[in-house]
Amino acid sequence: MSQAPDRTGGPSAEEIAALDAHWRAANYLAVGQIYLMDNPLLTRPLIPEDIKPRLLGHWGTSPGLNLVYTHLNRVIKDRDLTALAVWGPGHGGPAVVANSWLEGSWSEVYRDVPRDAEGMARLFKRFSFPGGVPSHVAPDVPGSIHEGGELGYALTHAYGAAFDHPDLFVACVIGDGEAETGPLAASWHSDKFLDPVHDGAVLPILHLNGYKIANPTVLARLPEDELDALLRGYGHDPLHVEGDDPETVHRELALALDTALDRIAVIQERARVQGAVERPSWPMIVLRTPKGWTGPREVDGLPVENTWRAHQVPLHGVREDDDHRRQLEEWMRSYRPEELFDEDGRPRPEVLRYVPEGDARLGATPYANGGRLTRDLPLPGLAGHAVEVAAPGQSTSEPTQVLGGWLEELMAATAARRDFRLVGPDETASNRLDAVYRATGKTWEEKTYPTDEHLSRDGRVMEVLSEHLCQGWLEGYLLTGRHGLFSCYEAFAHIVDSMVNQHIKWLRASRRLDWRRPIASLNYLLTSHVWRQDHNGFSHQDPGFVDHILNKSPEAVRVYLPPDANTLLAAAEHVLGSRDYVNVIVSGKQPTFDWLTLEQARAHCARGAGTWAWAGTEDGTREPDVVLACAGDVPTQEVLAAAGLLRRHLPELSLRVVNVVDVARLLPQGEHPHGMPDAEYDALFTRDKPVIFAYHGYPWLIHRLAYRRHGHDHLHVRGYEEEGTTTTPFDMVVRNDLDRYRLVMDVIDRVPGLGVRAVGLRQAMADARFRHHRWIREHGSDMPEVADWRWEG
User: Fold this and answer.
1) What confidence tens digit (pLDDT) does each residue in 318-331 have?
2) How far, in Å, are 179, 209, 239, 478 from residue 227 at the CA level?
3) pLDDT tens digits for 127-143?
């Protein structure tokens, strides 16, 4: 990062005038978007028809965002910076839209909105208007990677963008309302994971305007020395800017930005040239300006500027109330638009003096349209990592450990390009992925001790006990053109339910914008799952993240439940090569039977669901009497064990075994891109035969996915029923009626005529469950017939 021109005395009066002109123009445009749909240059007095019938948007934060955008333009142009901005108060959409229109990036992606009076009118009308653009800094806004509708994630997104982008400067505006959230509080610690050599720089700008929607904000009311101590305790070096006089604030903010960027340049030079290894104290800016600054000071006898009343729309009755409409016109004319725009509505040269050009503009940077930068990963071949399977169910492997070896090779293959990271909350080794440490370490910028293992300042495995940070880092990383994998205990993926929901919405909206390029998929590996929590018990048993994901936009979500190591490899290869999806893979880390060769696994994953003919007893002359279906590694084992019992004791029964890897295959074709046509579903599951389905998660999900299928009345699903504790592996499935003995009983109960003929077998199955209960309470382990079971087909 380069030093700025010498500004020892601060900006000149002429420079401040140019900054102020740009700021006033942005403020004018922000107000116009909230209120107007005609008469953009106020060439005549406002009339009711000029005003939108529904007034939507957030004014209160917009002047502060406009101020920061204006000053970022100056330092980007002065220093020839490669920069990205993350706008935490993303509901301040009018500000970011205004600035992207001023700099020209808006008109480049929306060619029917030129930088003139006609374009300004369209810009105003389309903001928060049917058929237009949302009120937040959504994907529709050039330069955005962060909508900010849900608060808490701005800073973690900013750091994710900076990782492995050594030449990138990321400015992140954090609203004081957002600063009250838990995720943002944790995000301050991201500076402990930023490597000054291989990563870019993040400049947090904490904007304190004092109020939320209807209340004061905590940090804005702290005494300055207490706030300063808090931020220094987080490892930052704060620079304070405060005021309500524009000239003073312009001067102080310009000096603060120059000081911060000079300090960043020194930090990076010390690390990159001089080899400094101590963790630096990175600068940040605390900016205090009034909420709704430059807007109406009073409306209907009540104070507005610098109060919570400025948060959204300060003047409400503008279309109906002549006095409010007069106030609006006075407000807009106070920016002196005739000095800012020429007769045709084009910004005057003085307004654009500090606006960068080309991709240097914040609205045009390729880092905010990460698909422009994304390269295909050099995915290693699977053959060298696949498990040899001489026959189904005769050997076991730890699937995630097998995957770890493949990820190690991928880490090594991306060592020079540094565009793949593995994130997770302190669980990489626990989840059996620790082979990656042979290729890279864990990111760590703090002190290290001789007892530490695998810590590295330039590591690309990121562990922190905050799922929010893991998710946010990875989202920022993906949105700026890279790849990654999030490994997490299954039960605690729920912590980021809301975050992944926002990301899915982002992907869905981006797909509808032809100028947004596809980015690498957000990939989850959920392991240490519900059926194997021997240490932790009930608190760690929740398979519902899959339900949450499958509620979301079908075009963007995929869920895979590989039953063994080779299918996990095939699924991982697929998701890491995909674009614009949220992919969830659920796979255990404990020893699991090997069912399929690599070639079979690839074909099975490509189908998503299929019969395992070797496990059933069909002879091809008639439909099966019953279908045993399964999805998930433990349910697959129990279904195969049940099939073995049925083959032995009821050899005349025609049995079909179906395994489902891609859960969305159960949906009708018109409801999900992976859904099966009815004819294919009927051929696989039959139209009227009993289907006993052993599912990894909550059983009602399968019913919901298949409720429109012909055979739904004959579908009986077993799954997790919120029964759990610290117990043996087999006792978990017994407690939830997913065990092999219960599945055999279900077959006997549901195949017409079988109940009378197989009453003895049913009783033997019930007795086995009773024997199990007594055995584990006496021995503390599963019965030998379960623990030593192997497939005998």
Assistant:
1) 999 999 999 999 99
2) 12, 14, 12, 33
3) 999 999 999 999 999 99
